[in-house]
Amino acid sequence: MSTDRPHSVSVAGVIVDDQGRALLIQRRDNGQWEPPGGVVEREETLPEALQREVLEETGIKIALPATLTGVYKNMTGLIVSLVFRCEAADGSPTTGDETRALRWATREEVTDLADEAYAIRVLDALDAASPPAIRAHDGVKLV
């Protein structure tokens, strides 16, 4: 039996507006720009976790079902992230306890604002990658 620590699972939602822009959050803890999301709690389904995390970080309730556009493994942090393309159902963008700022970003702005490991998630979602992309990174760069 392995003594390695287990992987955690997270979800992220890329909300796309009618102009093809993605909603990014700037995290309070590290100042990084990325799609809203977080760790799936033990008793949650993936859609429940996705809705909760996006609502907590943006003030927006998303429509379900959302479309899975990528699976990403942080090889350093041992986190497997499932990223979904989402549609806003209700609410308007607002910061929360974990969110310093929000911004609707074009493809070019996403690349400028976010580290490669997070920008690719948003770009895959904007492209509605099908089948979903499967990628690995070190927390910043793709590997």
Structural summary, described in words:
By secondary structure, the chain is α+β, with helices and mostly antiparallel strands. It has a single domain (8-137), classed as Nucleoside Triphosphate Pyrophosphohydrolase, CATH 3.90.79.10. Helices cover 22% and strands 36% of the residues. The chain has helices spanning 46-58, 107-113, 116-126; strands at 8-15, 22-27, 33-34, 37-39, 61-62, 67-74, 79-86, 88-90, 99-105, 133-137. A 5-stranded mixed β-sheet has the order 4-1-7-6-10, sandwiched between helices. A 3-stranded antiparallel β-sheet has the order 3-2-9. A two-stranded antiparallel sheet has the order 5-8. β6 and β7 form a beta hairpin. α2 runs antiparallel to α3.
What characteristics describe this protein?
single chain, 3 helices, alpha+beta, 143 residues, 22% helix, 10 strands, globular
**Poorly predicted residue ranges:** none
Task: Assign an overall shape.
Answer: globular
Number of β-strand runs: 10
Q: Write down the Rg.
A: 14 Å
- At CATH level 2, the architecture is Alpha-Beta Complex
* Biggest sheet record: 5 strands, mixed
- The helical percent reads 10-25%
Main sheet strand line-up: 4-1-7-6-10
Question: SSE order, as H and E?
Answer: EEEEHEEEEEHHE
By DSSP (H or I, 4+ residues per run), the number of helices equals 3
Give the CATH superfamily: Nucleoside Triphosphate Pyrophosphohydrolase
CATH topology description:
Nucleoside Triphosphate Pyrophosphohydrolase
Q: What is the total number of structural domains?
A: 1
CA distance, first residue to last residue = 27 Å
Helix/strand/pairing category = alpha+beta
> DSSP strand (E) fraction?
35-45%
Tell me the name of the CATH class: Alpha Beta
Mean pLDDT: 95
